[in-house]
Design a protein that fits this description.
Layout: E1 2-6, E2 13-17, E3 23-26, H1 29-35, E4 40-46, E5 50-54, E6 58-63, E7 69-74, E8 81-86, E9 93-97, E10 111-113, E11 129-130
Parallel strand pairs: 3-10, 10-11
Antiparallel strand pairs: 1-2, 2-5, 3-4, 4-9, 6-7, 7-8, 8-9
Amino acid sequence: MKIDGGCHCGAIRYEADIDPEMVSICHCTDCQTLSGTAFRVVVFAPADKFSLTRGEPKIYVKVAESGNRRAQAFCAECGSPIYATSADEKPTAYGLRVGTVTQRDQLPPKRQIWHRSAVAWLPEMDGLVTKETT
């Protein structure tokens, strides 16, 4: 599925080709903190199917619980989180933040990961494949 999206202020825009079956809810504590809410919804795009069409995001590198270095990309103007990827020079995929996707209403989550970190007050989401970690 072809998608496009960008940050709140319009300084950053992107296009991607994604598999809508790969939309996930992530309950990890990094996603909770970086999104400012209980979880984040992500869809993965292969690196060769993702391109920035306007602007360059600011990058913050975070070491995940797994020990992997994750590049968190966001708009330096408005702060909108755009994607996360490996901190390698040649990433293989981008975890796009579904809230920035124009077609987000067409991307219902299919799975949830890092469920062990889900906040206790969040109701269970029946019908989703659930993994306690990744």
